[in-house]
Each structure stands twice: as structure tokens, then as C-alpha cells.
Specification:
The complex is a heterodimer of chains A (about 150) and B (about 325).
Chain A: H1 3-75, H2 78-93, E1 96-99, E2 111-118, E3 124-129, E4 131-134, E5 137-140, E6 142-148
Parallel strand pairs in A: 2-6
Antiparallel strand pairs in A: 1-4, 3-6, 4-5
Helix pairs in contact in A: 1-2
Chain B: E1 5-10, E2 14-21, E3 24-27, E4 37-38, E5 40-42, E6 47-48, H1 50-54, E7 64-65, H2 78-86, E8 90-93, E9 99-103, E10 106-108, H3 110-129, E11 135-140, H4 146-158, E12 162-168, H5 169-176, E13 185-192, E14 197-205, E15 208-217, H6 222-241, H7 249-265, E16 271-282, E17 285-294, H8 295-301, H9 303-319
Parallel strand pairs in B: 1-11, 11-12
Antiparallel strand pairs in B: 1-2, 2-3, 2-4, 5-6, 5-7, 8-9, 9-10, 13-14, 14-15, 16-17
Helix pairs in contact in B: 3-4, 6-7
The chains are: A alpha+beta (about 150), B alpha+beta (about 325).
């Protein structure tokens, strides 16, 4: 091949290669972005599953704990109180927060009204069961008696 | 961007939303973490589902449940009269004597109430999918007439949904079980739900679903089964301890939850134990409730309810021109 044809050939190869590099760089950048998004999604899904699993187990645990509170209401035993406090502190470590709305205004987001009694209209008069939150999300609403200005 | 279509079971007692994911249906979890949404609405405070249910006792005049019973019906319909007798909220005549509800002087159509449920279904689906949802398929009972189907479609539109199809509930059930892929089939769909019982006879062939007949009992469902167990437990406790548990709302609530749980357990176990420590007290002493319930005992308790379904089943078979075989 004559010299200037060779130069043209190399030059056009070069342009092709540069275009190919640009295209591959773009695709690489997109793939890396997709990969990063996928990682984030997997991580948030994993977090979601952990939260769901924990919520499920903790919900069951607090249902059982309810019975110990009922027992304590009747027995008033210092040993039982210690045992309940231990249970409570473990739940707290797992991120569980108590909802005790005694005297607060009724709010269906964190409470369930099971009866109305005479008392301050729309305020919680008695807490029948404590509620619980996990990471700010209500796992079990508190069960309460709400006041109504009932006629005598 | 392709929009996912959601499937909504707009039920009398509970509603459910699902979406197709990887070729199979996935039930969408509500923002309260449950896989069904109670069909309960408080339109003034704009509460829907579990939130509305939690304040029902406090606010019974303003909390609408089972609005599906009024959907597309007129005031003189016997179903509406039955609802009027049983509901703490006001049922009044709207345009053209259609059944509506009245709260704090404002009249709401069943479409508007149902739309609030559908709006929640849409919102929860959007949260789960992480994208906007605009299209939906909603199921209705096979016996729903044109005005009832139109009302359901309207409810979807009020909720901001493009209702692609209104599908018959028994048809959806048959599709879910792949019965359309089995050649020509005559299928009975026995749907005993939370509050209503529906029997439908379908003829399936060449991808076409023909509803041959429908029947049912609009005031018979799982809740009635729970009630049988609750009554059995309370009557026994009264006899043994002389205390009426129904007078204590907290005790009654515990019994109700335990009864439903026991009923569910007996689907897979032959017997279950109901244990409610410190259920109440008498003369300052705590009382505990322990009762064993076997599956055969449960079957005895609910036998008259099951028998109540036989009449409608026989009638629907007769209307479909099918002879029963025992």
C-alpha cells in the first residue's frame, strides 16, 4: 500500500477506535450506575425484609408480654416486675418503643378504641394494652378506653 | 415507561390489592403492614381501612362499613332495608332514590365511599412499587347488574384509576386456579367470605367464561363462624364461673381474637387450645380461661351455618340446569 493510503487507513481506524472507546466508556458508566442502583435496591430490600421479619417476631413477643402485664396487675409481685423489666429492656434494645397514651387525645394512628367510658371527650381514660413502635412505625396500636361525655 | 396494572378485590368486609411480578401475582402489603384492608371509611376525618376500624367504636355514626351492600341499589331494595336495620350510620335516599349514606348532614354515594378505599389501595400500591399507578382491574360479584358495575367503575375513576376491566369474582377465582386452561369445564365457585356467601356456576370453554347462575346469602360469612365459637366459649365460662365475659369489652376482644385464631388453626390441626390467663376477676380473684376446641366440635358448632349454604347451592345448580350428585 502506498504511504499516504496507509496513513489514511490508520487515521480512519483511529477514528473508529476512538468512537468505539467513547461508546464503551458510556456503556461502562451506565452499567456501573445500574450496578450501583441495583446494590442500593438490594440493600434496601434486605433492610425491608429484616424489618418485616423483626416486626413479625416482635409483634408476637408483645402479645405474649401482654399476659405478663395482666398477671402483674393482679399479683403485684416484685420478682415478676424484675422479669418483666428484663423482657422490656431486651425489646427496647431491638428498637421497640412503648406507646402509652394515657391522658392523651385519641389518635387512630397509634391507638385502637375498644370502649367508650364517661370522661373527657375524646381523651384516653384507660390503657388496656400498651402499643409498640419499631423505628417510628406502629407495630401494634395501644388498646384504650376513650372518654365520652355520656349522659347520666 | 410501562405502568403496572393492579388487581383489586373490593370486598364487603375486606379489600385486597395485588400486582403481577415475574409472571405470578403478588399481594401488596398495606401501609399498616397487613395484606388486606378493612373496607371501612370515616369520610369526615378521611380515615380508611385499619385507621377507620380503630375508631369505629368511638365514632359509629360516622364510620361506614360494608358499603358494597348499598352499591348501585335503590332505597326500596330489600338488601338496603336489611342494612338500614343493622347499621349505626344513616342510610338515606340520594339522586333517583339510590341508596346513599349521610354523615353530619352531608350525603355520600356508595361510589364516593368506595373510592376512598380504592384510593388507599392505589396509594399503598404506589408506595410498594415505587412508581405511579394509574390502571386497575376491579372485581365484582357475578350477580352485580349494570348499574352496580357502573357504580364500581365510577368509584375507581373518582379514585384516579383507569378501570381497565370489571371482572366477575368467581371468574377471577377460576382464572387464578388455571381452570381456563383445562378445556371445557363446568365449575362451581363456593365463596364463603368474611361477611357474605356467594355460589356461582360457571361454564368455561375456549377462554370464555359464562355465568350460568348465581345465588348466596349476603349476611353469612366467616364472622358468623367466629361468633359461634365466641358464644360457645362465653356460655361455658358463665356456667363454670358465673361471670358474663360479654360485659367486659377487653375480655370480649381477647375472646374474639382467640376465637378467630382457633378457627384458623383448626384448618390444619385436629385440635387447638384457647388460653386466656387473667381474663377477668371475681371477688377480687383472677380468673383464667382454658378451653380445648377440636375440629369435630367446631364442625358441630357451625353445622347450621354450613346447612344455610346448601339451599343456595342447590338452587344455583338447578338454575344452571345441572343435576347434583351425592
Amino acid at each position: 500500500m502506498p504511504k499516504n493510503q496507509k496513513v489514511k487507513h490508520i487515521s480512519s481506524n483511529n477514528t473508529e477506535l476512538l468512537e468505539k472507546i467513547t461508546s464503551l466508556e458510556e456503556r461502562l458508566a451506565r452499567s456501573l450506575a445500574d450496578y450501583s442502583n441495583l446494590e442500593k435496591r438490594i440493600d434496601s430490600q434486605r433492610q425491608l425484609f429484616i424489618t418485616l421479619a423483626t416486626t413479625s417476631i416482635l409483634s408476637k413477643m408483645v402479645e405474649v408480654l401482654d399476659n405478663f402485664y395482666l398477671a402483674q396487675n393482679h399479683l403485684n409481685d416484685p420478682g415478676l416486675k424484675m422479669a418483666i423489666d428484663k423482657f422490656d429492656s431486651v425489646l427496647k434494645t431491638e428498637g421497640l418503643e412503648e406507646i402509652n397514651p394515657l391522658g392523651l387525645e385519641f389518635d387512630p394512628h397509634s391507638m385502637e378504641c375498644i370502649e367508650t367510658v364517661e370522661g373527657k371527650e375524646n381523651f384516653v381514660i384507660e390503657v388496656k394494652k400498651l402499643g409498640y413502635k419499631l423505628n417510628g412505625h406502629v407495630v401494634r396500636p395501644a388498646q384504650v378506653s376513650v372518654g365520652k361525655n355520656l349522659p347520666n | 415507561m410501562s405502568n403496572k396494572i393492579i388487581g383489586i378485590d373490593l370486598g364487603t368486609t375486606n379489600s385486597c390489592v395485588a400486582v403481577m411480578e415475574g409472571g405470578s401475582p403478588k399481594v401488596i402489603i398495606s401501609s399498616e403492614g397487613r395484606n388486606t384492608i378493612p373496607s371501612i371509611v370515616e369520610p369526615v376525618k378521611k380515615l380508611v381501612g385499619d385507621l377507620a376500624k380503630r375508631q369505629m367504636v368511638l365514632n359509629s355514626k360516622n364510620t361506614i362499613y360494608s358499603v358494597k351492600r348499598l352499591m348501585g341499589r335503590r332505597m326500596d331494595d330489600p338488601e338496603v332495608k336489611k342494612s338500614q336495620a343493622a347499621s349505626p350510620y344513616k342510610i338515606v335516599a340520594g339522586k333517583d332514590n339510590t341508596a346513599c349514606v349521610e354523615i353530619d348532614g352531608k350525603v355520600y354515594t356508595p361510589q364516593e365511599i368506595s373510592a376512598m378505599i380504592l384510593q388507599k389501595c392505589k396509594a399503598d400500591a404506589e408506595k410498594y412499587l415505587g412508581e405511579k399507578v394509574t390502571d386497575a382491574v376491579i372485581t365484582v360479584p357475578a350477580y352485580f347488574d349494570d348499574s352496580q358495575r357502573q357504580a364500581t367503575k365510577q368509584a375507581g375513576e373518582i379514585a384516579g384509576l383507569n378501570v381497565q376491566r370489571i371482572v366477575n369474582e368467581p371468574t377471577a377465582a377460576a382464572l387464578a386456579y388455571g381452570l381456563d386452561k383445562k378445556g371445557n369445564e363446568l365449575v362451581a365457585v363456593y365463596d364463603l367470605g368474611g361477611g357474605t356467601f356467594d355460589i356461582s356456576i360457571l361454564e368455561i370453554g375456549g377462554g370464555i367464561f359464562e355465568v350460568k347462575s348465581t345465588n348466596g346469602d349476603t349476611f353469612l360469612g366467616g364472622d358468623d363462624f367466629d361468633q359461634k365459637i365466641i358464644t360457645w366459649i362465653s356460655d361455658d365460662f358463665q356456667k363454670q364461673n358465673g361471670v358474663d365475659l360479654s360485659k367486659d369489652p377487653q375480655a370480649l376482644q381477647r375472646v374474639r381474637e382467640a376465637a378467630e385464631k382457633a378457627k384458623i388453626e383448626l384448618s390444619s390441626a385436629a385440635e387447638t387450645e384457647i388460653n386466656l390467663p387473667f381474663i377477668t376477676q371475681k371477688d377480687g380473684q383472677p380468673l383464667h380461661l382454658t378451653k380445648k376446641l377440636t375440629r369435630s366440635e367446631l364442625e358441630k358448632l357451625v353445622d347450621d351455618l354450613i346447612q344455610k349454604t346448601i339451599g343456595p347451592v342447590e338452587k344455583s345448580l338447578k338454575d344452571a340446569g345441572v343435576s347434583k350428585r351425592y
